[in-house]
Write a structure and sequence with these properties.
Oligomer: single chain
Order of helices and strands: HHHHHHH
Number of helices: 7
Helix content: over 70%
Length: 126
């Protein structure tokens, strides 16, 4: 959950505060990648809707809309070179039909996150 809070800090800040939060996000993503290596020493296996577990649900809940955040902030969080296991795990999860069907439409989520970011930034500068 610390990672989720740090991601929120990136969204709700700019300038030096955002840079500091970003550094923390990348450090935590690196730690997460190491943890994934311990859980899946052979790499990410094929994931189908029949074998989705609680950890998969947590991952999709926290990172499912990562492309939205990347688009809104103009940053790359989940990089196939820096976090290959996390990237492949999320890619596999996002391909499951029930996951695809349960996620909100990308453009609507982009608009919503932009709205939150703009309101947060304008309220902190007022």
């Amino acid at each position: 959950m610390q990672l989720f809070e740090t991601l929120r800090s990136v969204l709700k800040s700019d300038g030096e505060a955002q840079e500091k939060a970003l550094k923390e996000v990348f450090e935590k993503l690196s730690l997460l990648e190491e943890g994934i290596k311990n859980i899946f020493p052979e790499g990410i296996q094929i994931i189908e809707h029949e074998n989705v577990g609680l950890l998969d649900i947590v991952m999709i809940s926290v990172f499912g809309p990562y492309k939205v955040y990347e688009e809104v902030l103009g940053l790359k969080f989940i990089d196939p070179e820096k976090t290959p296991l996390l990237f492949s795990w999320l890619t596999a999860l996002l391909e499951i039909p029930v996951v695809k069907d349960s996620l909100p439409p990308h453009e609507k989520l982009v608009g919503f996150i932009k709205f939150i970011r703009q309101n947060t930034l304008s309220s902190t500068s007022a």
